[in-house]
Fold:
Amino acid sequence: MYIFSVSIALIKALNIICFDIPYPANYGGAMDVFHKVRWLHKKGIKVYLHCFEYGGRKPAPELEELCEKVFYYKRRTGLAALLSPWPYNVKTRYSEELIQNLLQNDYPIVCEVLHTCYVLADPRFKDRLKIYREVNIEHEYYRHLAMGEKSFVKRLYLRMEARKLERYEAVVKHADALATVSTNDQQRFQSLYPSKKNTLIPCFHEFDTVEIKPGQSDFILYHGNLGVSENYIAAEWLIDNVFSKINYRVIIAGLNPPPFLKEQIAQHKHIELKENCSPQEMNELIANAQIHCLYTQQATGLKLKLLNALYRGRYVVANDAMLAGTSLHKACVTANSPREFVNAIEKFMPQPVSNEIQEVRSTLVADYDNNNKIDAFLNML
Structure:
């Protein structure tokens, strides 16, 4: 990552269009937006945050404290949106009210993920500075989700949405600059849109310094949004191939675990489920775990659970797909096969963590420092 020294004198304010209400910051996409806004506030930038209210998430006073103004819009869901040639996730977020609010100022516009990018091609914004913030190759991500989805109806929807997202991605050509999340994604977009300024800016996260608790504990942790097929498939794989083969205590923690995962966990006395933890509870689990086992079958984007584990956790064992597109291999123990995971667990469960690991880890994760990333982000503007 390039580290820029940025003068922010010319940058007074910007608009951020968020696909969701980014507080509480309890899943990857929300974390990236919320902590980006937090750092923009630190740098004295006025943020006009435009976000979509759905899924039970409510307007948040915590956002009002960081932003000049927060606008909330309802998603327009339903069959008509499903039948649109636009992706459902784009069509349901189209808002003329949002467009009119954006027209009230002339500040740069940041579109968070492809779902909010319809303003890029709108002729009313042809003279505005527009940034596309990418966190996934969306159609690839949705195809992977479809492969792991157990419901036929949801699987059909995800496949249809993937096709629409692949066609729709061409809207990115109307952006002035791209902020890509991993080296793999940066290279892909650079090849597709070579004339666009393309800056590698990994996800923003909660932790501004590495703080690892010395000593040891008696449990292994896997955490994630368990309502997403990528994560519950990873949990199932770890239970079947790794956790069921060891005698150590295991905690699986995350949002909205499906019933079949609960049943699978209940079959093992040494595996415990902690569902829908508060951010404080999750941070305590992350800090106190002896080993973080991180596994995925989707080498897409950047996994924020990985950064959280590296900034606060003790030993981190991860597979190559989890580390794809990052510079974090040396900060982790790499394991791909069940035997490699088991061997790593057997090796590091008895080993207390010393104070020296914090200094080493800080050096290894320097590319993911929030202060460096916000300077790179402001440089694009």
